[in-house]
Amino acid sequence: MNAPVSAPSDPAVSGLAVDPPVPDEREKLLEVRGLRTEFATSRGTVAAVRDVDLVVHRRERMAIVGESGSGKSAMAMSIVGLLQPPGRVVGGQVLLGGKDLRGLSDREWSKVRGRRISLVFQDAMSALDPIRTIGSQMTESIRTHQAISKRVARSQAVDLLGEVGVSNARQRLSDYPHQYSGGMRQRVLIAMALANSPELVIADEPTTALDVTTQAQVLELLDRLVTDRGAALMLITHNLGIVAGYCDIVKVMYFGKFVEESTSAELFRAPAHPYSRELSKCVLRTDQEVQGRLATIPGSLPDPTEPVTGCSFEPRCPVGHGNPLCRGTEPVMLPFGPPQADHRSSCHFSGKLTADADS
Amino acid sequence: MTTLILRRLGVALATVFGASMFSFLVLRKLPGDPARLVGGELADETTIANLRAAMGLNKPLPAQYWDYLTHLVRGDLGFSYSMGQPVATLVRTRLPASIELGITAVLIAVIWATSYAAFAVYRRRRGVDTSLRVTSSIAMGSPSFWLALVLILVLSVKLGIFPGPEGRLSPSLSPPPTRTGLYTLDALLAGQFSTFFNALWHLILPGFTIAVGPFAFISRLFRSQLRNSVREPFALVARSRGLTRRKVFLRHVVPNSLLPLVAVTSMLVAELMTGSVLVEKVFAWPGVGSLTVDAILQKDFSVVQGVILLSAVLYVTASFLADIAYVVIDPRVRVGAH
Predict the structure, then answer these.
(1) Residues A204 and A189 occupy one common structural domain
(2) Whether residue A142 sits in one domain with residue A50
(3) Confidence of residue B299 (pLDDT cuts 50, 70, 90)
(4) Higher model confidence: residue A287 or residue A6?
(5) N or C: which end of chain A has fewer CB within 10 A?
(6) Is A10 contained in some domain?
């Protein structure tokens, strides 16, 4: 089972010169079909996730990219059935290994969460129970899914903590969350997520609360552990910059829908959607000096209580703003570029944009 | 930790001292002549003057207070003229009855309030939650002496389920041999099970009546704590680790919500003490509360003073212990960051 792109960490070299992936031979792990999530607000019902389709294959590393409010987290929480009220999943299927997870009982879910699908959250301080030791929370996670003694679970916890780089792990098991630094807490969360060797790890902005140097270490660690255990990774982020090194597939989300998806190499080489192109301009690069102000995408997401006609990105789009076609007709996902890149985009001008990039 | 204890101890002593001074001054400044009360309506002026001299009422106030304090440190709370006994003896003999009733009330209030609030928050049903809020509003608004009368009228006079206002035991029974002073415990220790059940049965109505106020207070506080804790990210994360909603609730939400309750123990004790005074009287409970009512009606200052001091000591001790307990229990306070 090969990863679809062999050298994703180096987009300049990889790209088209790789073996074409054979999608049918890869085993589907998670399949989301037509997922729709709504939030009841004082101004009416608002859709956060709009009929999203998604397939994660085994061992695949996928990034979901989009700005705050684009529906990434709502989608993740819907997948694991933990969307909190007033949010509600109103339609679609979430298939794990072919079995629909929607409608599982609390008890059935508890065999999936933490065991087959694990989550890593962003704010590690509030993600841990402040009055229980790290050790008790880790052994609790382990013993929820494995019928082993406290002592065995504890030694597993020590191994895990050591693996994520917590020094003096045996002693630090008796410490409370507030005695750990931010980076170490995040490592603990990762260790807990991987404790039961899940098939899929969903990491929702796992590094936003950390400083830049720690971010890189934590991502490195997450990537290594996920790969070592043969798990698939769904990395949710608003930072396109960290995607290239750690993910094979990128999906760009805007206003509750995917607007572009591709291998990360292809997406960086030739973004086919104006939103992705603008997003990638916002990434700070160490190899280029910042000239003038940092790039931003002017405007904000549309008002979700208003009905959208045409393309939801049109009001902010540097390509199609004011264009009657964009205003009147909602674009659909269509394939572009080389077939092995599995590149799809929903923009009326994708062809032109990729052609520009190729020339 | 040591400095904290010392500081809290200083505050506690100052509070007790203040309470002693306050009760002394207020009671001395109230209208009415204690000597006249002791001597009676018919006593002549010379008798009264002699009594005043004997009781030290001729001395200036600071000197009287000094007398009071010097007796106090020797354990002498003064003499009750209306009951013909030293105040310390009166309080000591009546304290066990009040303690037994107080413990019963605390148990009823805490168990009732926490389980009701936990159930209401866990079930997430609007009806259950509303019923809790209505119950606690009614509980908060019901004066305990009124509630005591209603309960006696309905449950003992009309329905005959509970004993009427006859004190700690049915008149036909004699108290168990004294070891702790708590009838239920003493009866158990002596193996007198019928006495135990009788004593327990007598505890329930007054205990419940006193518990109503604290119930209202604890259930509201615990409900809001629980509602905050279930929304905490760690509760969601615990579910993402595979714990069922029930396990997350019991293992993480409830413990985190109980912690703040420790901090309000002193308020609970205050509620209990104020609640028990009239309720004891209504139920003819031979405790400190009914002693207080009798003493006030008799203008027996030394008893009232003694009871006020006792309440101050109890309150201060409870809040002191609560503060220490909070520090010991909460790891965020107990162990600093590395």
Answers:
(1) no
(2) no
(3) confident
(4) A287
(5) C
(6) no
Alpha-carbon distance of A81 to B91, in angstroms, equals 61
d(CA B237, CA A127): 6
Q: What are the tens digits of pLDDT across the range A229-246?
A: 999 999 999 888 788 888
Share of chain B above pLDDT 90, in %: 54
Bridge-based pairing of strands A257-263 and A343-345 is antiparallel
- How many CA within 13 A on the CB side of residue B276? 29
Statement: residue A8 has pLDDT above 50: no
Are residues A255 and A340 located together in one domain of the fold?
Answer: yes
Interchain CB contact of A80 with B (< 8 Å): yes
Mean per-residue pLDDT, B263-267? 82
Q: How many angstroms separate the CA atoms of A317 and A348, rounded? A: 12
Which of B237, B243, B251 comes nearest A110 by C-beta? B243
Q: Cβ distance B35 to B47 under 8 Å?
A: no
> Are residues A309 and A240 part of one domain?
yes
In a domain, A1, yes or no: no
Domains of chain B with bracketed CATH: 88-297 (1.10.3720.10)
| CA of A23 vs chain B CAs: smallest distance (Å) | 30
- Among A35, A40, A59, which Cα is nearest to A231's? A59
Instruction: For this complex, say whether ipTM is above 0.90.
Output: no
Of B237, B242, B337, nearest to A121 by CB-CB distance is: B237
- The dihedral over CA atoms of A279, A281, A286, A291, expressed in degrees to the nearest 10, equals -140
The nearest CA of chain B is from the CA of A314 a distance in Å of 36
Nearest chain A residue to B237 by CA distance is: A127
**Set of chain A residues whose Cβ sits within 8 Å of the Cβ of B231:** 84
Regarding whether A103 and A51 lie in a shared domain, the answer is yes
Same domain, A185 and A205: no
Residues A254 and A321 in one domain: yes
Residues 104-123 of A with CB under 8 A from B: 106-107, 109-115, 118-119, 121, 123
Average pLDDT over residues A295-321: 86
CATH code for position A35: 3.40.50.300
